[in-house]
Design goal:
Elements lengths: L2 H20 L4 H8 L3 H13 L3 E6 L7 E6 L12 H37 L7 H14 L4 E5 L5 E5 L5 H6 L2 H14 L3 E7 L8 E7 L3
Antiparallel strand pairs: 1-2, 3-4, 4-6, 5-6
Length: 216
């Protein structure tokens, strides 16, 4: 494969990553971030559209022509890791068939306990809640969630997960989502509140958690 072809694949992957983490964007905005000409970005977007990885919607502006806001197509989810989705769902179905709902719930409780122990072991007991949130984002990113921390004007923190590594499993059993919220709450401490404000399972682009200290 030529260097030119490799460069094109690299830029396309970068475009997909930016749309995944940043949501709908114009070709101009993508070009500025990647330091590539808008014309080149539009050519890559047209190629990705032909492959059914991206789509666009036109947005009207007060002045001038409508602009195209590019976003990932539904089928693009397969481009990002989902932790052996088919096998996971099959195992969940088997557990539920053999052990019933009670057995599945026991499995989720055990998984949550293991997650809490694993995450806690990677944190210092002396860290404040902000440091713990930052560490949690790093851990979740290593697990494929593409997590990031966004400081808010009201002194809260938004923990964003741009990708769900267990999407198929969560579709089959949404108790996974409740379990992970419980893990975050326990991990960050009793003096901190954790609220899920965006949820992929409810049709949002990402999962996001607003984290803030409880009133004294």
């Amino acid at each position: 494969m030529s260097d030119s072809a490799i460069d094109k694949i690299k830029v396309k992957n970068q475009i997909l990553h930016l749309l995944k983490t940043g949501g709908p964007q114009t070709a101009t905005a993508l070009a500025e971030q990647l330091q590539v000409s808008p014309m080149a970005i539009r050519q890559h977007l047209q190629s990705l559209q032909a492959d059914e990885w991206v789509i666009y919607q036109e947005e009207r502006r007060p002045v001038g022509r409508p602009v195209k806001l590019w976003q990932l197509a539904q089928g693009a989810a397969k481009l990002f890791p989902d932790s052996h989705a088919g096998l996971t769902v099959s195992l969940l179905q088997g557990i539920e068939h053999i052990f019933g709902t009670t057995g599945l719930e026991a499995l989720l409780v055990d998984r949550a306990q293991q997650q809490l122990q694993l995450y806690s072991a990677q944190m210092n007991n002396g860290w404040n809640w902000r440091e713990r949130v930052a560490a949690l984002a790093q851990i979740r990113s290593r697990e494929g969630y593409m997590a990031e921390v966004i400081e808010q004007a009201d002194n809260s923190i938004l923990l964003v997960e741009n990708h769900c590594s267990i999407h198929a499993a969560a579709q089959h059993c949404q108790q996974f989502c409740r379990s992970e919220l419980d893990v975050f709450t326990a991990l960050l401490g009793a003096d901190v509140s954790v609220e899920r404000v965006e949820h992929v399972m409810k049709g949002d682009r990402r999962c996001a958690y607003r984290i803030f200290p409880k009133a004294s």
